[in-house]
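Morning!

As promised:
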Amino acid sequence: MDETKESFWRSFREKKVGVLGLAMLVFIILVAVLAPLIAPYDPNESVDATAADVLAPPSPEHILGQDEVGRDVLSLVIYGTRISLVVGFAASFIVILIGCVIGLIAGYFGGWVDTLLMRITDGILVIPALPLMLVIIAVAGRGIINIILVIGFLSWTYMARTVRSQVLSVKERQFVLRARAIGVSHFGIIVYHILPQVLPLIFASATLDVSYAILAEASLSFLGLGDPTMVSWGSTLNRAFMRGAVTNGAWWYLVPPGLALAWVTLSFAMLSNAVQEIINPRLRTHHLFDERKMVSLMHRITAPKIVDDAINEI
Amino acid sequence: MIQIDYILRKITFSLMTLAAVIVFNFFLFRIIPGDPVAMISSPRMKPETRDLIREQYGLDKPIWLNLDAAREEDRFAAAFDSQFFYYLKNLSQGELGQSFRQKQPVADLIAMRLGPTILLILTGEIVAILLGTTLGIIAAWKAKSKIDALSMFVGLLAWSIPSFWMGIVLLTTARGYLPSGGYETIGAIFDSKLDHWLDIGRHLVLPALTMAITLFGSYIMVARSSSLEVLAEDYILTAKAKGLSTFKILWSHALKNAALPLATVIALDLGYALGGAIQIETIFSWPGIGRLMFDSIAQRDYPVLQGVFLLLAVSVISANFLADMTYLLLDPRVEA
């Protein structure tokens, strides 16, 4: 296992795109962890704002200017990193959990179990995700826990499909057949023999799920359904938009949160591109199959193949 | 035979998904905490009036099955005298209930907003298709060149930027040059129909452009990858050998073959574009379905929200069905 890990790192270091993506990601994680140290101001602190502070343009004291109540925009963006990453990772954890269980069971047992689970998966895939999230959050309430749960529970479909297709090929391999012949239980075979083979693929597609979850949170918050007690990029943009940043041309308030979002999305896409290429160099299959996958994912903001192509091209 | 089997299977799947959405839509809005009657009545109303409202909306009946009535009346059909079957019956007649806030039927509200949304999505889609396909085919033709890398970069950028942010940036940039929101100039009197259309067109530019930019990133990539595949075929080489012009080869050979995969992507996109319209319409105050959804969330107008969600789900399910059918045209051997 250590040897494969080492060879993985060796090939990873050769992928410039992946290394850059990882560096971008490490940077943003450091920003999130060290937010109280780096941020020049505390966004939760109340400010004694004068009229001059309202939507003030960048100045030496406030590098990215101030918002409509005089808070420092740079600090808002730095603190926003935290909620984005927490939602991203927590929701992907749910995605991995549900996607793995469904994918493993469907792929391993096959037959009507497989058909039933995959029909349910396809059914969830065709229901428009953003409107469904909006409706559920509007009804259930806008807490951070609700947001994480909704994103997690509606985004596992691609993971389940990926895991399933991998299990289908793994379960026919010799060591699985042998384990079955000597009487290892179904549970034992799935957990000890099949899961380890599928794990790398799970991580590769989970990286894309993280960026999808981050964008979903931003969209919800932008539409006013974010957690009202927390500062996030989406809610910052929502306030900027609702409270006159556009009419005042306060670009310093509007641009940074969006760039931060693009930064995170791109870093995860690049990272996943490199990982997928290492673990599965023959990933490219028939274009019909891939486009279908691509489209369903494009809307889940995770489009491995096409995005990979684009990254490779540049 | 296989094809009929395939079509039947897809129809069954679409219908079952639709049924699940309908049941879910009913269920979700019953778990809202609090008394629904409290939302439409005022606290000063007499209890009798409230009971009347409750009766009017059928809220005095049991949720799933009215077994008590069936037993009392000794009639099986009476069991269906419940909220759920009331909802189904109304739905089958196109009746989506009454808005809490606007005292208007939900179906009318939606019908009023449908036109602007269709106009927005169609314009955005057409611009995205034209731009995306052209760039994608050029990129494939000049594969591995600077133009290729540039158009891929543009595509990737367009793909990774959230549409609501794109909208805000465009709105801020174009401030003063183009109308910042709405569907038409309010209160303006137009000399002719043409003037009115031009006015709507000016309002349409920014939202449609935002929609086009969000969509076209994926079209560049799809057009490029499918043309690359076509361009590698032998008959393209034959066409070149025959001395056909570049334009002719691209137009009659490459584009024709890249068209169907694109059609699939577009069919799937149409449904999703409705969802994406929520953000864009919110930013530009475009009076469409998306803005209606946003407003009804803000005002806790649940019947409207329920109706809009149902409409969106139906559109996406139908778009998916269409995409499955274009698959059949594409490759008659399709399976699952």
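Residues 64 and 74 of chain A are 5 Å apart (CA to CA).

Hope this helps with the figure draft.
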